[in-house]
């Protein structure tokens, strides 16, 4: 295994030359003394003169390194051929510039898009950061790392994961377990700030969960679960009879509501790809056990059935929102993770090992899935107006209103919420049912996996800016919007007292989501949005004891039943900081657009012209 423990911007990748997806950001620091304005103009010039139409990752990045002006040249490889991520370059290489700006002195230029949330000028952002955050941020980072290390779980003296929460004041329930989805930001923090122990932990986590997938009888009452199912969580349990520790998984059999962890397998494949990319070590991904594990997960999703859509049919509570919340059907979070995992698996599966047929199925599903989501889940002003004017009861292939959505089912709030500039993927789609709610995870994953077209990704970021107070408010970030209230809350959640309006999954605000927002912001060249959100979180997160979630319309209150010292609130913050400080870290968790995937023809709305 080859990796660097240095914290410089030198790429950690060593022999990842076969990966065609992610642009390699190759920093060379030149310490040039130049005005901020010149630097930004340079950056924009470099970006706009790029010789091909590759979407720009990390186009212009404002960091704040006190009393320091640093210009960093970023080599981004584009073109149609797979990038050679380690070699010096090829004909398609182009150079753009990343500017690290002096916290107090920087002046914005007109080249930047104004942001309603940040104001039309970045000056105030830079100033407020300089004033408030420069002293506070390193302290918070220090505390976060310390608490993060305390959450490590050991099995046979080796780190295998992180506890969900370490809150001495609350009943542990299952928060003393290692959750697969909760471990993703932990794993990414270890990859982005590599140490031997951290990288070992990611590897051990991948191996142990793989082992649990294949070697555990997954029974709930008399029913045996699918072979490919990955656990939602596991714990280290001492067995007095055996006089030793064992790993005990939960596949939903002990979870509240017996919910199915559909997202676990997808996150596992995505993390395996990130690990491979970071270490350059392909031996884990190429091992027979990992290849088998991936195939088992995919078999669960690619099996023939009665489906008329390429999306994956799920029960409620099958992902981060693991309680009844009206997510049954085809929730965007699962569809985006499914797409992401398919694309990662496509790159990790070895074709020679009898995988040819599987790879063909993956390719077909990727194409069908992206078409379906990009075309039918997309909502912006124009599309909303189209739906509002839909005719119903259309028959045959010529139907415009394919799913027979009844315009009267559009909730009133959408008309107020939808800005002229911006758009998003709706929460769910099935016959006569569009769930118009906004879900952050699905939308950000769609950006990171390039399920969203570049224009759609831009529009999602526009929406976040336009609806800053609703989606970010006082504490980033709303997991879903808006909240279900009154009669609807009763019917949809089953009167869930944990998911009352503007609480927990029902319109609550989750700091862990900062890492996803930051990654999406960097990918779309809008890091200032993430910086502003991080700054907001820094004002309270550590002081409030790293709560799991916040409540209230603007996320002003620490959540009713929120755990303190929730590990993914800590690691999510750390990953956000590690990416904003070194945007090239994005490459561990982002896939570039695959030009071979056909895109649907869509009516473009005003929001797409930017
Ligand atoms: C809650 C969350 C779930 C998370 C778990 C552990 O159940 O809804 O997403 O994985 O806590 O933190």
Explain this structure.
- With 610 residues, this protein is an alpha+beta fold.
- The chain has a domain of 313 residues: Glycosyltransferase, CATH 1.50.10.10.
- It contains 18 helices and 19 strands.
- Strand 14 and strand 15 form a beta hairpin.
- The longest helix has 28 residues.
- The site of alpha-D-glucopyranose has 6 residues, from helix 3.
- Invertase that cleaves sucrose into glucose and fructose.
- Pfam families: Glyco_hydro_100 (PF12899).
- Its EC number is 3.2.1.26.
List the helices and strands and how they pair.
Elements lengths: L25 E4 L6 H13 L14 E2 L5 E8 L15 E9 L21 H28 L1 E4 L2 E5 L15 E2 H13 L3 H19 L4 E2 L2 E2 L8 E7 L4 E7 L11 H18 L3 H4 L1 H15 L29 H17 L7 H22 E3 H8 L23 H6 L5 E3 L2 E3 L2 E3 L2 E2 H9 L5 H13 L1 H4 L8 E2 L4 H8 L20 H10 L3 H12 L11 E2 L5 E2 L8 H15 L29
Parallel strand pairs: 2-4
Antiparallel strand pairs: 1-3, 3-4, 5-6, 7-10, 8-9, 10-11, 12-13, 14-15, 16-17, 18-19
Helix pairs in contact: 2-17, 2-18, 3-4, 3-5, 3-18, 4-5, 5-8, 7-8, 8-9, 8-12, 12-16, 16-17, 16-18, 17-18
Alpha-D-glucopyranose binds next to α3.
């Amino acid at each position: 295994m080859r990796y660097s423990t240095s914290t410089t911007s030198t790429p950690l990748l060593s022999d990842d030359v076969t990966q065609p997806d992610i642009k390699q950001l190759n920093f060379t620091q030149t310490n040039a003394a130049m005005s901020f304005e010149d630097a930004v103009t340079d950056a924009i010039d470099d970006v706009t003169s790029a010789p091909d139409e590759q979407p720009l990752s990390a186009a212009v990045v404002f960091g704040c390194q006190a009393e320091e002006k640093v210009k960093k040249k970023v080599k981004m490889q584009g073109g149609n051929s797979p990038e050679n991520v380690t070699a010096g370059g090829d004909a398609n290489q182009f150079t753009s510039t990343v500017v690290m700006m002096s916290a107090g002195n920087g002046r914005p230029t007109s080249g930047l898009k104004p942001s309603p949330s940040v104001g039309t000028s970045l000056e105030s952002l830079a100033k407020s950061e300089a004033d408030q955050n420069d002293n506070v941020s390193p302290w918070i980072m220090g505390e976060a790392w310390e608490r993060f290390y305390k959450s490590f779980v050991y099995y046979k003296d080796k780190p295998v994961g992180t506890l969900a929460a370490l809150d001495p004041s609350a009943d542990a329930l299952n928060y003393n377990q290692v959750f697969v989805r909760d471990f993703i930001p932990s794993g990414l923090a270890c990859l982005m700030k590599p140490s031997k122990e951290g990288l070992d932990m990611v590897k051990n986590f991948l191996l142990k969960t793989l082992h649990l997938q294949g070697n555990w009888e997954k029974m709930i009452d008399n029913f045996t679960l699918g072979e490919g199912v990955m656990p939602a969580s596991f714990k280290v349990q001492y067995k007095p009879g055996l006089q030793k520790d064992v790993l005990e998984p939960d596949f939903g059999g002990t979870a509240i509501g017996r919910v199915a962890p559909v997202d676990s397998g997808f996150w596992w494949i995505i993390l395996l790809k990130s690990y491979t990319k970071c270490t350059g070590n392909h031996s884990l991904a190429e091992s027979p056990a990992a290849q088998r594990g991936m195939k088992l997960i995919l078999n669960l999703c690619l099996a023939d059935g009665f489906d008329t859509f390429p999306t994956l049919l799920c029960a409620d509570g099958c992902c981060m929102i693991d309680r009844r919340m009206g997510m049954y059907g085809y929730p965007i979070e699962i569809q985006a993770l499914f797409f992401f995992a398919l694309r990662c698996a496509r790159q990790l599966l070895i074709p020679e090992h009898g995988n040819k047929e599987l790879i063909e199925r993956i390719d077909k599903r990727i194409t069908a899935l992206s078409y379906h989501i990009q075309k039918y889940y997309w909502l912006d002003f124009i599309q909303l107006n189209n739906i509002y004017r839909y005719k119903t009861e259309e028959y045959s292939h010529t139907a415009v209103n394919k799913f027979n959505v009844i315009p009267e089912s559009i909730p009133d709030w959408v008309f107020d919420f939808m800005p002229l500039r911006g758009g998003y993927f709706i929460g769910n789609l099935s016959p006569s049912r569009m769930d118009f709610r906004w879900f952050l995870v699905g939308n950000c994953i769609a950006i990171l996996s390039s399920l969203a077209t570049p224009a759609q990704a831009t529009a999602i970021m526009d929406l976040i800016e336009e609806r800053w107070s609703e989606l970010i408010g006082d504490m980033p970030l709303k997991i879903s919007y808006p909240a279900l209230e009154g009669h609807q809350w009763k019917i949809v959640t089953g009167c869930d007292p944990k998911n009352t309006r503007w609480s927990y999954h029902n319109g609550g605000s989750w700091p862990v989501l900062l890492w996803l927002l930051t990654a999406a912001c960097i990918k779309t060249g809008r890091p200032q949005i993430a910086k502003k959100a991080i700054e907001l979180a820094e004002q309270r997160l550590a002081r409030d004891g790293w709560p799991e979630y916040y409540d209230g319309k603007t996320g002003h209150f620490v959540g009713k039943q929120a755990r303190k010292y929730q590990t993914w609130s800590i690691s999510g913050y750390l990953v956000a900081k590690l990416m904003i400080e070194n945007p090239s870290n994005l490459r561990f968790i982002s896939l570039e657009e695959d030009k071979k995937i056909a895109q649907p023809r869509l009516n473009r709305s005003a929001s797409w012209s930017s």
